[in-house]
């Protein structure tokens, strides 16, 4: 009996160490960034069993067998669609500013997506006006409506959008709705999905969350895009989920969410339609062919002619595209950078790029909310303040609610607006989308909005920050330890 117990104990110990060693080699062979790898190794060594379970479920980007196969088949077909679009010579931008040229070249060479000319563009800063505009466009749709959102929460004006969408489907408009399972969990618990499907709308729950799938697919990989496409001519994107901020997350006590959306008219909708078709195929396995842009609608008045570049990221697309684009934009800055983001947990590369820009004499301004809806992120982001402040970066804390808009303005000329937070999850993991505009007049419009945010913010004083309580520094460093995973 004693011998059997001893053998069993040794087998258990050996199995334990073999498992630890196997996971360690797996992490090292993935060639991840050093902070990312070290964080996971420490978690596994300190909390072995929980750490291994967490790594297998959250540590690697795996879509699952079916989605991975669809992703491999999807991208070549998207490349062909982009080439067909760009073969229409008058649509593609032929000249960009010296500031924007490197970024546009990167995206064209890696994604096959060039800047598209002949678009009207308007920024929407008020959620009420944005939802009202969406309802109006849906009510006047003739052919097709496609939407993808991370969060759709019923209530208020969101219900008006749902009613308009149902009415559009009932009059024969082809409607598709793709919603993230985790973000839109409340929506899928209501009667709205059945009402929409009964009206003829294709409603798809993207990346379903389930304990049964926890080891088959990474559960925190989310569909984070926010896109509305109407008649292959009107497009919306930006930071706003399909929610009425008057009723959204009131229990968090951070105030109403403040968002920024772009409404576009023109051939840029065709580019975004190709990206949507890829998302739809990956989730459903069904290939949809977006129609080409309507040539009758591509020649707009010169005073409304904006060149827009779309950058998409996520599994199945070229890796780290938006991260690389932001790095190039920051390194290209010569005078001023203004960044708005609700969550500030940058990669080491991006943190160093921002600090180096400030050391070069660039006026760097970052606007974040004083309070946000994530306790972990709130404390982890503070761990980056000291390095940024030491480099001369101005950090503003917005006090007019939860500032959720995601924008970057470089030298008043190059603008980036989209769904991307400056955190690891958005930069390296989720399905995201960003539009880039190389235009000084549009840059002035974005700067006015950002300056309004600054007017409602409090500037962090570097000297006072250094005098903060020691216990706060300990908490910040504790949560900073998990920053590669947030």
From TrEMBL:
This protein's record includes keyword Mitochondrion: no
Membrane topology: Multi-pass membrane protein
Pfam (any one): PLDc_2
Catalytic activity, reaction form: 2 a 1,2-diacyl-sn-glycero-3-phospho-(1'-sn-glycerol) = a cardiolipin + glycerol
Claim: Membrane is one of the keywords in the record: yes
Cellular component terms per the entry's GO annotation: plasma membrane
Subcellular location, principal: membrane
Cross-referenced InterPro entries: Cardiolipin_synthase (IPR022924), CL_synthase_A (IPR030840), PLD-like_dom (IPR025202), PLipase_D/transphosphatidylase (IPR001736)
Every PLD phosphodiesterase domain range: 219-246, 399-426
GO molecular function annotations of the record: cardiolipin synthase activity
SUPFAM superfamilies: Phospholipase D/nuclease (SSF56024)
Residues that span the membrane, as ranges: 6-29, 36-58
Enzyme Commission code(s) on record: 2.7.8.-
Gene3D superfamilies for this protein: Endonuclease Chain A
Compartments where located: Cell membrane
Top EC class, one word: transferase
The entry's keywords: Cell inner membrane, Cell membrane, Lipid biosynthesis, Lipid metabolism, Membrane, Phospholipid biosynthesis, Phospholipid metabolism, Repeat, Transferase, Transmembrane, Transmembrane helix
Gene Ontology biological-process entries: cardiolipin biosynthetic process
Active site: 224, 226, 231, 404, 406, 411
PANTHER family: CARDIOLIPIN SYNTHASE (PTHR21248), PHOSPHOLIPASE D (PTHR21248:SF22)
Family stated for the protein in its record: Belongs to the phospholipase D family. Cardiolipin synthase subfamily. ClsA sub-subfamily.
Cited NCBIfam families: bac_cardiolipin
Function statement: Catalyzes the reversible phosphatidyl group transfer from one phosphatidylglycerol molecule to another to form cardiolipin (CL) (diphosphatidylglycerol) and glycerol.
Name by which UniProt lists this protein: Cardiolipin synthase A
Source species of the chain: Candidatus Erwinia haradaeae
């Amino acid at each position: 009996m004693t011998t059997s117990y001893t053998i069993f104990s040794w087998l258990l110990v050996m199995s334990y160490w073999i498992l630890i060693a196997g996971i360690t080699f797996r992490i090292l062979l993935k060639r991840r960034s050093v902070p990312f790898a070290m964080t996971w190794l420490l978690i596994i060594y300190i909390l072995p069993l929980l750490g291994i379970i967490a790594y297998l479920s959250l540590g690697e980007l795996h879509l699952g067998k079916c989605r991975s196969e669809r992703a491999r088949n999807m991208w070549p077909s998207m490349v062909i669609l982009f080439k067909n679009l760009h073969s229409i010579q008058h649509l593609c931008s032929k000249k960009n500013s010296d500031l924007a040229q490197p970024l546009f070249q990167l995206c064209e060479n890696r994604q096959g997506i060039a800047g598209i000319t002949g678009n009207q563009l308007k920024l929407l800063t008020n959620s009420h006006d944005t939802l009202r505009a969406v309802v109006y466009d849906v009510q006047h749709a003739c052919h097709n409506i496609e939407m993808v959102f991370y969060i759709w929460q019923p209530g208020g004006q969101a219900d008006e959008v749902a009613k308009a969408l149902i009415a559009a489907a009932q009059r024969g408009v082809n409607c598709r709705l793709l919603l993230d399972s985790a973000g839109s969990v409340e929506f899928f618990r209501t009667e709205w999905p059945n009402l929409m499907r009964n009206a003829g709308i294709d409603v798809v729950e993207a990346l379903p969350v389930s304990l049964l799938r926890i080891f088959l697919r990474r559960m925190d990989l989310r569909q984070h895009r926010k896109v509305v496409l109407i008649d292959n001519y009107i497009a919306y994107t930006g930071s706003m989920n399909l929610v009425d901020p008057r009723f959204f997350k009131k229990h968090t006590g951070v105030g109403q969410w403040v968002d920024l959306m772009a409404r576009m008219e023109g051939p840029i909708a065709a580019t975004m339609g190709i990206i949507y078709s890829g998302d739809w195929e990956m989730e459903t396995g069904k290939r949809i062919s977006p129609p080409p842009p309507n040539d009758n609608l591509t020649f707009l008045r010169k005073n409304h002619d904006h060149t827009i570049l779309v950058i998409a990221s996520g599994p199945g697309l070229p890796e780290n595209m938006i991260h690389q684009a932001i790095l190039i934009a920051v390194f290209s800055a010569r005078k001023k950078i203004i960044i708005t983001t609700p969550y500030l947990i940058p990669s080491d590369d991006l943190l160093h790029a921002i600090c180096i820009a400030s050391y070069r004499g660039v006026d760097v301004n970052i606007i974040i909310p004083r309070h946000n809806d994530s306790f972990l992120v709130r404390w982890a982001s503070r761990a980056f303040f000291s390095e940024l402040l030491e480099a001369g970066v101005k950090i503003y804390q917005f006090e007019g609610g939860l500032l959720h808009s995601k924008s970057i303005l470089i030298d008043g000329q190059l603008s980036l607006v989209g769904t991307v937070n400056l955190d690891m999850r958005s930069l390296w993991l989720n399905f995201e989308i960003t539009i880039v505009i190389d235009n000084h007049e549009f840059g002035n419009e974005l700067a006015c909005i950002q300056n309004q945010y600054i007017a409602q913010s409090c500037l962090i004083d570097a000297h006072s920050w250094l005098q903060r309580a020691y216990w706060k520094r300990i908490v910040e460093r504790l949560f900073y330890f998990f920053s590669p995973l947030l």
